[in-house]
Amino acid sequence: MLSVVSDAFPVLAICLAIPVALFLHELGHAVPVVATGGRAHIMIGDTEGRTVETGPVRVTVGSNGIWSLLYFGRCRSDGIRSRTVRAIAILAGPGTTLLVVVMTGVALSVVQHESVRFVVVGLFYNQVWVAFVTLVPVEYPSWFGMYAGDRSDGYRFLKLLRG
After folding, report:
1. pLDDT digits (tens, 9 = 90+) for 111-137
2. Tell me: the pLDDT tens digits for 62-75?
3. Which of 10, 89, 112, 147 is the most exposed place for a label (fewest CB within 10 A)?
């Protein structure tokens, strides 16, 4: 029984770490907005689900199944008066993801335990992928699931720069 638990630990830990990292990415988008008087709605897993609201921040955890919790996040905001704040908010999500990449990279240099290392490596590569996919200016193709037709943070940032 103990072997089953210890064997399942890495998979369960990754399934918890990825949504946390996804939430941090979306929170990165929200912080500049809220700090300048705007409102933000962070959605993880789906746009509909259980919602908690505290002041200018709403958080929705979707009920579209576990797989969407592992890859779908969005932050909608309103009340942004400044183009500079909008630019910072767009870049703050991928910036937060890059911070997680750095932190997991540093952790890889010190973590020795095989199961924990597996989790850190999994999160590291997941976040490298997320950073890449969000920073490259692209409109997501149809096979990108819930993101199909959306524009990446890099695309939105370039569009904002071009006016």
Report:
1. 888 888 999 999 999 999 999 999 999
2. 877 777 888 899 99
3. 112
